[in-house]
Design a protein that fits this description.
- β6 and β7 form a beta hairpin.
- It contains 19 helices and 21 strands.
- Helix content is 32%, strand content 17%.
- The radius of gyration is 30 Å and the shape is elongated.
- The chain has helices spanning 4-9, 22-37, 58-67, 85-98, 146-154, 159-172, 273-280, 286-292, 309-312, 379-387, 414-423, 432-435, 442-452, 458-471, 488-501, 518-534, 546-552, 570-575, 580-590, and strands at residues 43-44, 73-76, 101-102, 111-114, 128-132, 183-185, 189-191, 210-215, 220-224, 230-232, 260-262, 268-270, 335-344, 353-363, 368-372, 394-399, 425-428, 506-510, 538-543, 555-560, 563-569.
- α2 crosses α3 (58-67), α13 packs across α14 and α14 (458-471) crosses α15 (488-501).
- Bound molecules: adenosine-5'-diphosphate and magnesium ion.
- Residues 379-380, 511 line the site of magnesium ion.
Length: 591
């Protein structure tokens, strides 16, 4: 590969090098326009090979070269300094390509290309800030799957980002995210504003200038147009903090309202070298700079949270759930399933399976329905169809909570069906790992459900999580422990607490005790029995085990090969089963 020095040396030649052809420029410009139209949204673009090494700012270079012209004056900085190797070479490349002017003075620049800083000077409405972005996806630390992060952005489903902040607070008392702090743009898209320090993050809010952020390798760019709302992601009751050491000031210019970096000898220096020299020359608008400095976000230890505090504090939040329709008007049921049908088509090596065939039932608030059958009889498929994890071929599912029971929820979008699972239709899976994130704390798992439901108070979340964990008899001393360290029974209890966190109307239990040792299973079964008795939930309990069904339910349906072959009151089915298949199930439970 040509090294950058050779390349930039060529720039003196009368023919300007073409780092981006006209078509490429047009494509980047189009992407910039889309970005401006949808602030914070990651716009893909057809990236070109740039004559700079990866990590040298090819994303920013493409934007600058695409939007710049001969009449522009460009300032290029790296780490707040124009003299770094990277800055010098990028500047030479941009100048050589555009034939434009260059400056160190932010006030004279029409385009500022930067990576680590927003200049200390206030940028104005005729200026554009181009940020070279090393990480384009703020959700990457919490989700590696690109399809999933795309879905999260599309649905504004950022609950897990708040959970990550919650976990930070629980472990450290402060939010650890250092640079590229996640922000919410225009109350819609979460964005990572490059590795600028937290100091610069509030300065993007309602700015006069246009900011374009671009990532060459990911081939994505996004924009913050002038006067756009850019708010750091945090809880309502946990203040965002910028970097600041008490009493620190630049040893060269004396500034104490700029972003300072510490030298190896412990002294503080302005990171914006140009600003610092102009302060010494008395050539700055110090008053305006004071207004722009994020002084309202200086660290305040008295406002920090300690995990324990919120649990001992007096609760001032209203934890009572909103009143909602418990049954459809004129009806008894909270959930009604009609003629559900599901066929798994034959694939290589398998035959076509009619997993669910004409299954109908309804459940009233406060009632528990058992769904019993041998393994493979279609029980789990019924539940999966209900919650939307499986598509359905025939039938209707009505929920009292959705349009008073008049809408077939099977026809709703995938996003709407996911939303239902937060506050209307909760599931406890046989395998706790299916319902929990084992890498985060017990409290964090409950915070996941609460933040998804719109909770934004850290203290309220902790109190609610503590209440729920206490109710399922998980010791509070373990609230902040990672669930992966819990025993199977304890995990199942956390999963139950999480399912109840959104105050659902319908609770689906899929073999809730099947994976547990007998004595542990008995404890969880007792807990479930109490919980069902104290709540007005409509519950479906799926099990192959008649002992579980008879412990928890009033009524039951018996499934065999996808069909309901017998139904009735659980006690009666148990005492007097008619179908030979049911008799076998009863006999198995009696053993
Ligand atoms: P249960 O929960 O009662 O044990 P399931 O609902 O899991 O039964 O399965 C019912 C039938 O559907 C079984 O024959 C099973 O093999 C089949 N089945 C379940 N899921 C799939 C799938 N994703 N693809 C193909 N067949 C499936
Ligand atoms: Mg099953």
């Amino acid at each position: 590969m040509t090294d950058i020095a050779t390349l930039t040396a060529d720039l003196a030649a009368p023919d300007r090098p073409t780092v981006l052809d006209e078509q490429g420029k047009r494509e980047v410009r189009r992407a910039c326009l889309s970005g401006v139209c949808i602030p914070g949204y990651q716009v893909p673009f057809g990236s070109r090979e740039m004559p700079v090494a990866r990590g040298w700012g090819s994303g920013g270079l493409q934007v600058t070269v695409a939007i710049g012209a001969e009449s522009d004056t460009v300032k290029v900085i790296d780490q707040g300094d124009e003299e770094g190797v990277n800055a010098v070479n990028l500047r030479r490349l941009i100048r050589g390509t555009l034939g434009c002017g260059a400056t160190a003075d932010t006030r004279e620049a029409t385009i500022v290309q930067s990576r680590h800083r927003v200049p200390e000077d206030r940028m104005r409405d005729h200026q554009t800030l181009v940020l070279q972005v090393p990480v384009s996806e703020p959700l990457r630390p919490i989700e590696k799957d690109v399809t999933e992060t795309r879905r999260m952005h599309a649905e504004a489903d950022y609950a897990r980002l708040w959970v990550a902040l919650y976990e930070d607070l629980v472990t450290g008392g402060v939010i650890n995210a250092a640079s590229g702090y996640p922000v919410l743009v225009e109350d819609r898209y979460v964005m990572a504003p490059s590795p600028i320090p937290r100091w610069d993050v509030p300065r993007l809010n309602d700015a006069e200038h246009l900011t374009l952020l671009s990532h060459g390798r990911d081939k994505k760019l996004y924009a913050v147009p002038p006067h756009t709302k850019v708010i750091p992601v945090t809880f309502d009751d946990v203040p965002f903090e910028v970097e600041y050491a008490d009493g620190s000031a630049c040893i060269l210019c004396g500034s104490d309202d700029t972003y300072l970096v510490q030298t190896s000898t412990g002294d503080w220096l302005c990171s914006d070298v140009e600003w610092c020299s102009r302060v010494r020359d008395n050539d700055v608008d110090a008053e305006d700079h004071q207004l722009l400095a994020p002084l309202q976000w200086l660290p305040d230890p008295t406002k920090r949270v300690r995990a324990i505090d919120s649990l001992t504090q007096q609760a001032d939040d209203d934890l009572a759930p909103a009143a909602r329709a418990r049954t459809a008007p004129g009806e008894e049921w909270a959930v009604k399933v009609e003629h559900l049908g599901k066929t798994f088509e034959a694939r290589r090596g398998s035959t076509r399976v009619r997993a669910v065939d004409d299954v109908s039932f309804d459940i009233a608030p406060g009632e528990a329905l058992g769904i019993i059958g041998e393994s493979g009889s279609g029980k789990s498929t019924v539940l999966r169809c209900l919650i939307g994890e499986e598509t359905t071929d025939e039938g209707r599912v009505l929920l009292a909570d959705v349009d008073e029971g008049s809408t077939n929820v099977l026809g709703l979008s995938a996003a709407d069906r996911r939303a239902l699972r937060i506050s209307t239709l909760a599931v406890v899976h046989q395998d706790p790992a299916a319902g929990l994130d084992l890498r985060i704390s017990a409290g964090g798992n409950i915070a996941d459900r609460l933040t998804a439901g719109g909770w934004r108070s850290y203290h309220a979340i902790r109190r609610r999580a503590a209440q729920l964990l206490e109710r399922v008899e998980v010791p509070l001393s373990r609230m902040d422990d990672v669930v992966g360290q819990f025993s199977g029974g304890m995990r199942q209890r956390v999963q139950i607490a999480k399912a109840l966190a959104g105050d659902p109307q319908v609770l689906l239990l899929d073999e809730p005790t099947t994976g547990l040792d007998a004595s542990v299973a008995a404890g969880v079964l007792d807990l479930l029995r109490e919980l069902l008795a104290e709540r007005e939930l409509a519950v479906a309990v799926v099990s192959h085990d008649f002992a579980v069904i008879s412990a928890l339910t009033d009524r039951a349906i018996v499934m065999r090969q996808g069909r309901v072959i017998e139904q009735g009151l659980t006690d009666q089915l148990f005492a007097d089963p008619h179908h030979p298949y049911t008799q076998r199930l009863v006999a198995a439970a009696g053993r």
